[in-house]
Amino acid sequence: MSDETSATLSNFITDIIDEHLENGRFDHVHTRFPPEPNGYLHIGHAKSICLNFGTAQQYGGLTNLRFDDTNPTKEEVEYVESIKADVKWLGFDWDDRLYFASDYFGVLYEYAIQLIKQGNAFVCDLSAEELRQYRGTLTEPGKNSPYRDRSVEENLDLFKRMKAGEFADGSRTLRAKIDMSSPNLNMRDPVMYRILHEEHHRTGDEWCIYPMYDYAHCVSDSQEHITHSICTLEFEDHRPLYDWYLDQLGIFHSQQIEFARLNLTYTVMSKRKLLQLVKEGTVSGWDDPRMPTLSGMRRRGYTPEAIRTFAETIGVSKANSVVDVELLEHVLRDDLNNRARRVMAVVEPLKVIIDNYPENGEEFFDVAYFPYDRENSPTRPVPFSKEIYIERSDFMEEPVKKFYRLAPGQEVRLMNAYYITCTGVVKDADGEVVELHCTYDPESKGGMSPDGRKVRGTMHWVSARHALDAELRLYDYLLTKADPYDIPEGGDFTDNINPDSLQVLTGAKLEPSLKDAKVLEPFQFMRQGFFCADYDSKEGALVFNRTISLVDTWAKMQK
RNA sequence: UGGGGCAUGGUGCAAUGGCAGCACAGCGGACUUUGAAUCCGUUGAUCCAGGUUCGAAUCCUGGUGCCCCGGCCA
Question: For residue A119, what are the contacts with CB-CB under 8 A and spacing of at least 6?
């Protein structure tokens, strides 16, 4: 088997492509991913990236990365850098085909002049407010602009002067001359250029007029000979305009195809709202591990493979839908399960003293990192001694039915070490359990007794003397409701923010081998979940993120 | 009758006139030195009404429901 990312996928988009290939409209496939650099990429963009790069790959074609940077008031270099890093991290390569819509400002301008000369565009002096009134409504046609019939010469002169900076922002626009009575509002003489005396992150102050999306996007696609321009559903109404520009200009005609964007339960997916969370300090930044951004998910411990598998699993269609976040979690666990080394870490420690173990005794067990494949697994030494920590939740003084873990008089197995039996419970003045006394069976070394007696409970542990202290960051959904927009009267989505989405545990105890854990390297803390060291982690001040907990059947049974 | 689009188990996606299937979730069991993973089994769906056809999720007609569109944003 080759490990090529994808089997052949079939969906409504490949159906269209197949048709184009058969009828000769195109003889190859070339797509593009066109982010606007006004925010960080999120899991919804990942769907689009995988779709664009994946589809082209499937047909032996190429994919360009093109920044849609036609609005200097919102766009920043910080965003273009983060976007490039995220696309690469996801595992896709645009080679030398990195483009910007701003690369085409020159040709866009020349084509605009052509359109003016053809009588397809005119300079309009209506204000934004007037323009809105002239546009009409959903059910009533609009009215022609009083400037619609200017001569070609006058339009040319005015447009050049717009470019030359002679007019104030908002005072004039260049508009396509189409049909003010079209039932499609996008065709009612849409604005092509607006005046914006604004510094652009790439072109500086070279321009003070900027093209609108509809005009810039189709021409950009055409310039790059993009065969299939894949975008989201809300642009379906724009397709006639997309086609109109290309037809009037008589240039290479890309085919726009629309698909339904990703929605996830318990997740807000709009860049505007994510920006709001960052600005209001609800999260620590775009890369906060609770964010659905690629940078946040990366920091959280997601792998690119998991995200790609997810994109493949959810498929693509034109039906609005909401994917259950549990599916994302499933592919994450599945991926991590196959790659994470198993180690022991106690999240909420409870001290255990093994009374019959030698006072200063110490021994090291050679433990496989991959217990399901011991023969081929690398190992590390794990120290054991008289005092250890176990998980607080692994002890119950009065065990409920089917509780197989530690309880007074009950015997359990310490993973890879010994069987122990609880013989005593020490409490503080408040009745809180602070310490346990146990005895161990020396015969059970390694975790099996010669008599073969059954021990139901198997627990992880860490030698107290050798333990590493660490801070653990446990994450929950950022929102309390599956539908972020299930909002109380008069509120907004921030009313649904989960106040407990971040839980910081400072007293965790880790096995010593974790001292050398590399940032973002995935581990499974056995019986707890998958964790990775955070960017903040330093020697002597370790910090681990819980990427995702293990499935917890026991917890479900307790409900 | 503004225009455009979409309806298949709880969720997402297949089936392109021929036995409605896959994944997740759920439920039951086996196994287990992770109450994980794995394995086995299982509940559950074609928006409605007509029509065409030997046969309709698929084609036709008429409904219903949901989404998008009135930025000089993308």
Answer: A152, A177
| Three-state DSSP class for residue A388 | strand
pLDDT tens for A324-351 read: 999 999 999 999 999 999 999 999 999 9
| Catalytic residue status for A271 | yes
Shortest-distance nucleotide from A527 CA to C1': B34
Domains of chain A by start residue, with CATH: 3-259 (3.40.50.620), 271-342+470-558 (2.40.240.10), 345-460 (2.40.240.10)
Q: Which nucleotide is nearest to A413 (CA to C1')?
A: B33
Give strand B nucleotides closer than 7 A to any protein Cβ: 2-8, 10-16, 23-27, 33-38, 66-74
Q: Tell me, in Å, how far CA of A280 is from C1' of B72?
A: 29
Q: Would you place residue A6 in the very low, low, confident or very high pLDDT band (cuts 50, 70, 90)?
A: very low
Beta strands in A52-126 (DSSP E): 62-67, 98-100, 121-124
* 8 A C-beta contact, residue A550 and residue A528: yes
A52: tokens are 């664009």
Comparing CA positions, the residue from A278, A302, A275, A279 lying closest to residue A288 is A278
- The ipTM value here is 0.97
**Residue A31 in tokens:** 């797509």
Measured between alpha carbons, how far is A542 from A516 in angstroms, rounded to an integer? 10
Q: Indicate if the pLDDT at residue A505 is higher than 60.
A: yes
Strand A529-533 versus strand A30-33 pairing type:
unpaired
**CA–CA separation, A269 and A292 (whole Å):** 7
- Collapsing DSSP to helix, strand or coil, A408 comes out as strand
Instruction: Report DSSP state, residue A264.
Output: B
Angle formed at CA A379 by CA A373 and CA A381, multiple of 5 degrees? 140
Catalytic one of A84, A148, A261, A481 = A261
CA neighbor of A72 nearest in space, from A247, A185, A211, A214: A211
Identify the helix (H) or strand (E) that includes residue A556: helix A553-558
pLDDT at A389 over 50: yes
Q: Annotated catalytic residue: which of A32, A150, A175, A271? A: A271
Cα angle: A394, vertex A396, A397; to 5 degrees: 145
pLDDT digits 0-9 by tens, A154-197: 999 999 999 999 999 999 999 999 999 999 999 999 999 999 99
Q: For the stretch A169-186, what's the b/e string if a residue is b when 16 or more beta carbons lie within 10 angstroms of its beta carbon?
A: eeebbbbbbbebebeeeb
For residues A259 and A272, give the distance between their C-alpha atoms in angstroms, rounded to a whole number.
21
Token pair listed for A508: 């965790």
In angstroms, how far is B13 C1' from A514 CA?
A: 41
How many DSSP H helices and E strands does chain A contain? 13, 25
Q: What is the pTM of this model?
A: 0.96
